[in-house]
Specification:
The N terminus is likely disordered. Helix content is 41%, strand content 11%. With 470 residues, it is an alpha/beta fold. The longest helix is centred in the C-terminal third of the chain and has 18 residues. The chain contains 19 helices and eleven strands. It has two domains: 177 residues, D-Maltodextrin-Binding Protein, domain 2; 205 residues, 3-Layer(aba) Sandwich (D-Maltodextrin-Binding Protein, domain 2).
């Protein structure tokens, strides 16, 4: 099959198949992501490999198909989650209210944490053996849990019908050793938020389509113009802080770079494509066109944007409500930048999984299955400004109650997710690779003590050690 990084392809603008055509079936850990993403509007859905097609169908066929699950007597389920905006919180409240109304036999303990504290709190709890029954986690973190054997096999408690409706790529990312160990909840992506007043007064055009997106060079000029005209210390920023360094990886992959080889057996950060993407960041930092906020630093980019300390910010669809609350009417969203006719976005979104040793495995599975069913997924996405991962919802469309035009753009952006990046980000070693990447980027971004070559060399050595330990 043709290597997806050796062939140029057009930017995706419209899609008949939405996420079903992404080719993110490459999510399955340990598989090779073959083929290309064709951005033409008449493109056929990307074909899954025979082995992957067989794997997915076998897992679905092996589901327990229970006629009716009955929770254990006296079941109490603690579910941990975070909220990053008011719309996110509203979505969780609505769905959990439904859950409690429809399943009064299960006592639900809602444990919500702020988004900037969730990971540290959960790491501390798990280290102390204090595991909740059900947890919300990003797809990028699933690999480590899979390899540690702490995820409940939910296969006996699920039906083939409910599994068959989940988009193949996301379902594959929740499978390990032929078992369903998590269920996809939603996806989301990042795009470029901009200050309407600044952009309009400076006469900066706003792209009308993905094909018209800013080039890297144009983005640099825009940052220079706005920084100078409004006497800003920085031009813009991105939400790749708080160990979310992977949110910068779309710049790497849209340039043809990758963390891992096609078979995921080698680290490939020392390619010219990867190097060029880091050089772009270094060049932006050299002129303070990107903020100095570190990849491991506390979240700051959104606050800098809403307080008008910067003119643009790469943030997510779930941030629309907080943008409107903090700078009403003065923000807009446009497409991610492009490099040589190619763009991309991050693989956002989260899944839910149960702790293997929960006292109430049936009740925990009922909770996860309920939250991710079609009706509740639709409600969650419409209220929280997320993108669903069920084929029936993708085909029928989502009627967003808030920010419908902005969400239409985010759905377009979702079409550009790179399948190779998705495969790499759900690999067993990805969490460690991301931590290494974030830590080394800080030395270039914040301290300015490391060059691009230093970052590449350190990442290659440290990541190779991690890969060899597997």
């Amino acid at each position: 099959m043709e290597n997806m990084h050796t062939k140029k392809y057009d930017i995706i603008s419209k899609g008949k198949y939405l996420l079903l055509t992404l080719g993110i079936m490459g999510l399955m850990v340990g598989t090779t992501a073959c083929g290309t993403v064709n951005g033409k509007s008449d493109a056929e859905p990307e074909k899954k490999s025979v082995s992957q097609e067989k794997m997915i169908q076998e897992v679905i066929a092996n589901a327990g198909n229970p006629k009716e699950l009955v929770a254990e007597k006296g079941a109490t389920i603690e579910i941990t989650y975070w909220t990053g905006s008011s719309s996110d919180e509203d979505a969780w409240t609505a769905v959990l209210d439904d859950l409690e109304a429809d399943h009064p036999e299960i006592k639900i303990i809602r444990q919500r944490y702020p988004s900037n504290e969730y990971w540290d709190v959960m790491d501390a709890r798990m280290s102390a053996g204090d595991w909740p029954d059900v947890m919300r986690y990003q797809y990028q973190n699933l690999g480590e849990f899979k390899s540690n054997g702490v995820m409940l096999d939910m296969t006996p408690y699920l039906s083939s019908e409910e599994l068959d409706d989940i988009t193949d790529g996301f379902l594959a990312g929740c499978i390990y050793d032929g078992k369903i160990v998590a269920l996809p909840h939603h996806t989301d992506v990042i795009a470029m938020f901009y200050n309407k007043r600044m952009f309009e007064d400076a006469g900066i055009r706003i792209p009308k389509s993905i094909e018209d997106a800013y080039s890297w060079d144009e983005l640099m000029e825009i940052a220079r113009t706005l920084k100078s005209q409004y006497n800003l210390y920085y031009g813009g920023a991105g939400i790749w802080e708080n160990n979310y360094g992977y949110r910068y990886l779309p710049f790497v992959y849209m340039n043809g770079g990758a963390l891992l080889s096609e078979d995921q057996t080698k680290i490939t950060v020392d390619t010219s494509e990867f190097r060029e993407a880091l050089q772009f960041y270094d060049d932006m930092r050299a002129e303070d066109l990107f903020a100095s906020t570190g990849f491991t630093a506390p979240l700051a980019a959104n606050d800098m944007f809403t307080s008008e300390q910067i003119a643009f910010n790469f943030a997510g669809s779930w941030h629309c409500s907080s943008m409107e609350e903090n700078m009403p009417g003065n923000w807009g969203v446009t497409y991610m930048p492009q490099k040589d006719g190619r763009t991309g976005t991050d693989m956002g979104g989260n899944s839910l999984f149960c702790y293997k040793d929960t006292k109430y495995p049936i009740a925990a599975s009922i909770v996860v299955s309920y939250i991710t069913n079609k009706q509740e997924m639709q409600k969650f996405c419409e209220i929280g400004n997320f993108i669903p991962v069920r084929g029936s919802l993708l085909e029928s469309g989502i009627s967003y109650k808030n920010f419908p035009e902005e969400m239409k753009l985010f759905n377009e952006v979702a079409l550009t997710l790179d399948p190779k990046m998705a495969a790499d980000e759900t690999s067993v070693v990805f969490k460690k690779l991301n931590n290494i990447f974030s830590k080394n980027m800080d030395l270039m971004v914040v301290n300015r003590t490391a060059t691009v070559d230093d970052v590449i060399d350190s990442c290659r050595k440290e990541m190779t050690d991690v890969l060899n330990e597997q």
